[in-house]
Protein 1
Amino acid sequence: MSTLFEAIGMVCQTDVLIAILLSSIYGLVVGSLPGLSATMATALLVPVTFYLSPIAAIATIISASAMAIFSGDIPGALLRIPGTPASAAYTDEAYAMTRKGQPEMALGIGLWFSALGGIAGTISLMLLAPPLAEIALNFSTFEYFWLAFLGLMCATLVARSSPVKAIASMFLGLLVSCVGIDNPAGAARFTFGSVDLLGGIEPIPALVGVFAVSEVMRAMLTSEPPKLPYRRFGSILAGQIALTKQYVKPQVRGNIVGIIIGVLPGAGADMAAWVSYAMSKRFSKTPEKFGTGHPEGLIEAGASNNASLASGWVPALLFGIPGDTITAIAIGVLYMKGLNPGPTLFTERASSMYALYIIFILANIIMIPLGIVMIRAASHVLRAPRAAIMPVIVLLCAVGAFATGNNLYSVMIVAAFGIIGFVMERNGYPVAAMVLGIVMGTMVEQSFVTSIIKSDGSILPFFERPVSAVLASFTIAALLWPLGAWLWRLRSRPLAQ
Amino acid sequence: MTSGLTRRQVLAGGAAGGAALALGLNPAQAQTWPARPVTVICPWGAGGGTDATVRIVSAVLEKELKQPFNVVNRTGGSGVVGHAAIASAAPDGYTIGILTVEISMLHWQGLTEFRPDSYTPLALMNEDPPGIQVNASSPYKTVKELADAVKAAPPGKLKASGTGQGGIWHLALVGWLTAMGLKPDHVAWVPLNGAAPAMQDLAAGGLDIVTCSVPEARAMIEAGKARSLAIMAAERNPAFKDVPTLKEAMGIDYTTGAWRGIAGPKGMPPETVAAMTAALKKVNESSEFRDFMASRGFGVRWAPGAEFGSFMEAGDKAMGVAMKAAGLAKG
């Protein structure tokens, strides 16, 4: 008990509280700008943490990343431009809700269920860190292969277009992920002698291009859509309690899936959102409503990506192994501040650990008032003339892309993918499926090739290891499901006639 | 008497400026370096070990020289992009950067034209030797037992990792195997994206050996999931006193390591180089730098200017030999 009080004392320092507040505002702003991701928000904080006390330094990272993941939903819902890759899975859904005249509902869901998901993730971190970490340690490349494969299959589930076009887009994304030298053989592929292409095509500039730039191009071609009648946003949290009661199952499922995916090193909030959205649609009683501004998928995926954020700290704190790109940066800061990851952190530095939990909870609570302010400020975007918004978006995309690599190459990538995305959308190919391919491609290839090297070319270990076998059966069942359903219909039709 | 400029000072200033222009120098350089903020390029991403090192060095330099030292991450292409940016900057002392061991490896693979001699070496700041790690439940208690098992196993049966194909820790394994008289591919290399995934896969039972620096393996070792059997260095790491060197344990005199050092583009003015090396010496000796390196478990090394240059040259030659032996070099 005394350690708990000590921890509260550590958090209630003026510098820590100011750090939480300022980095929360910073995270909200950065996350809402297209092209600036939660990872980048964290990376930019590292030089600042040099000058902070250990607890304040960790507090900035926790609060900024949690806020950024939520506020990535804002431009997604208002402009159909996801602020971070973690929002890309359900951007269309949120935007459809806005077009239906319920922007405050879409954003309220993002805010409320992000906060609840974050708190659920924190509780898992507090209560289950050691057993969760043991799960993570059972994942070798064989298991990751199945996991990434399952992730890829979400492409067909999430898309509203024909599954064939969704798969085609996903394959295009896989092809894009082949570019560069960061592949298992270390061979330069599709680089055409360009040094920049050696580094491959990062998911973030590609995402910004296909969503934001192509949206601007579309806007230039079509006449302005009928303005949504402007009114002050109604209560943002109204109805969220009712939704919480109505959709208990999707929410709990989203939290659990988010926690599990977050704990696995290498799979972060992006994947959690995709998998949860797809699961939500698959298990929903009304899957036909998905994509038309239906809250169910938003709830599940919004809860999932924030839950994964907290549980991503489990392997980071216990073994110094990053659960995602954000904790990869956080580990560096932990070492620098003398909070070396390892089991001793939980025993000898227990008060620091409690302080960390308290910060997580605090950040997810102040997310609600700060988020409401942010949503209200952002709502004016809907009133502004399109001719004023679009140039600003292009500018933000260019600046954000430049900031990721400090060179013009990323800006060119954004432009190129803007054109690709525009052409794809015109012809009914879902761009979200391509983004999924780019995000997952490296993981699929890496885990497959390394597994095959380890097993000397045998594919048996993909099915032999216990966890691997379970994941394999999930994947195969999901693959065969449509076939089975089709055969079932075929058989039952003559009977019905 | 002290107010305003005297005629003589104006004349002297004009003459100095003229001389500087005649020499083709920027007037700013004629003043003592640094007269304006300095850009420090880091070829690796924010948050990693190299980034943290360059940021602490810059922070201390800033205090020492009273000018901002701004760290800019130019990432991509396994470090090619950032290293190229350092080499092709203007050699005026206002753009420098941190070089990593990859500069002595990338050109052998035909990935860049830049080599260690494409830079003005300023100072070597750090070197981390690789350790040989096994799973905590592995039957091998000493590196000698492991070596005997490696020798007895058929080629390719045992699997090791620590980084990607042809990365520094891959070459460390190759060096160790070659020193034992084995073929470079006697232990199969599983290319993984860095030391952290390798340590995780070691704990998950997917790998037999991980060669990566001891600081990178530290959390797993402290969590009781892995053991470090030896390090490929001349001396033991003070943070891990009970891990022997290869020489102590097996009599094999093989050492290697991943190093980091500060350098600028070729052709920097000698007086700037001298000023910078002197400042870097103060950084290297400062308690901020030492404390930081100790807290991360990073090894501190010091080699000024030309000494750093010959260190890189020697390392470059050794890398060439190892990479050719492993079939990783191009041409």
Protein 2
Amino acid sequence: MKAIYKREMRAFFNAPVGYVCVAVLIALYGFMYLQVMAMGSTSVIGSVYSTMFTFGMMIIPIITMRSMSDDQKNKTDQALLTAPVGVGSIVLGKFLACVTVFGFASTLGLLPAVALSFFSSPPWGEIVGYYLGTILYGGAMVSIGVFISSLTISQIIAAIGTFVVAVALMYIDNLASVSSNAVFHAIVGWISFNSRYTTFTQGMFSISSAVFFLSVMAVFVFLTARRLESRRWN
Amino acid sequence: MVEVRNLTKRYGVNLALDNVSFTVEEGTIVGFLGPNGAGKSTTMNIITGYLSATSGEVLVAGKNTLDEPLEVKKLIGYLPEQPPLYMDMTVKEYLNFMYDLKKAKLPRAQHLQEICQLVRIEEVFNRLVGNLSKGYKQRVGIAQALIGNPPVLILDEPTVGLDPKQIIEIRDLIKRLGKNHTVILSSHILPEVQAICERIIVVNNGRLVADGATDTLAHDLSKDHRLLLRAEGPEREMVHALRALPRIVEVVSMGEKEPGVYEISVETEPTADPRKDIFALMVRKGWPLMALKNMDLTLEDLFLQLTSTDAASAVHTEETAVEDAEIFERRE
């Protein structure tokens, strides 16, 4: 697992993908903070992170798109699957590498707040809430992206598929609110990422929400491993 | 060392492998021959655990690939048809990655250096894999298979894409490796298999059609055994004298090929080798022997025969009586 994690990290930063993803997010954070400065009020910092959360979700498909599909396309999966490592650790290594890249970009997004703290007092509770929520939601989204990537050998299809799922998850609550179907409401309630995420953004650390996101990650890492295993049986 | 039992693999309705069984003893080099799409790569992929069989099992060093996959994978070094290389890494990074991936325990720097010397990739050690020529990529692929010094090497067309000089180098390397490794290699280049392998397994349409030692396989599977000789002397007398030799089935003169020199075809019993007798006869009679040629099938003839006419000409030298009986029935 460690070997695969190391290789994936290297792949991100050998190619421009990693740099571009991180740089785009940081540039956007900078732009948002510029507006905060223009307004001159720390009370709008929360909205910076909520906007950035949306951008983050747009970046995730690009981070995860090649994780599984590339190996399949270049036949490097033959090296991985015939090496004495389980499919679980292959998937976990790749998943953790993607999470690290996303987490790295998100963590750098805290820098403007740190800089501001020398001159003012940013609402740290809210910021940390947003940060944790983004990491957990993002982690769950990454696991879904990695899973989708394992379904296809085309990076583009993987990226678009993940993008659609990300958008669907963000707007599914809105869809539920305009529907009056109780069953639909209940289902959305079970799978809603947003409702779990907002507990964090209100500055509360909710264990049940954290467990929800961690379970989603576990489920999709497991499914990806099953998917890898199932390819042997085709 | 490697035991393949009744392997069958189906891709949907396509039968890629049909009840293939063979055993490879420790320290032998086995050549896996067959036309494209015969099931060579599929068999190799199943042995290495990349694919699973629809039915049947594979034992490596007595361990079942399904029961102890990780243990078995540690014993095998695999070069797939397309070397599994990461184009965005340097050779050094890639080999180090494979070293970690295979959880090799040998001293890292020394081990990698030895392998690089063996397959001659030292001069590209710091170059990006993606920028290497096909020959070097192939060699990096071989290097990768050697990491961790696994006792079993499975090489799927190891000399593809190499120039003639490199091919000879890699053949020599495989021969050397064969002294303390069990090697299974696939190829459709016959001279290559003849040059390297001690034993040949021929597959066609997913079925095992021949299995035997390289030197004797062609002889054993030839249906008629003939010698063609040229000698100077009286045509009729020569034919008569040759007919009188023991274990000769038929002697036919093919006519005068050079002034006073006749070409004579001598058909022998399958196990007989009358060459010494013929020589002695010719000397005794004072008929100069100009040429003596064994007309057994060459491996190439055999390969074409086995793989073009499908099961009709299927033959099997292994002592699996049941299978043989079945195949012979089909032949009749």
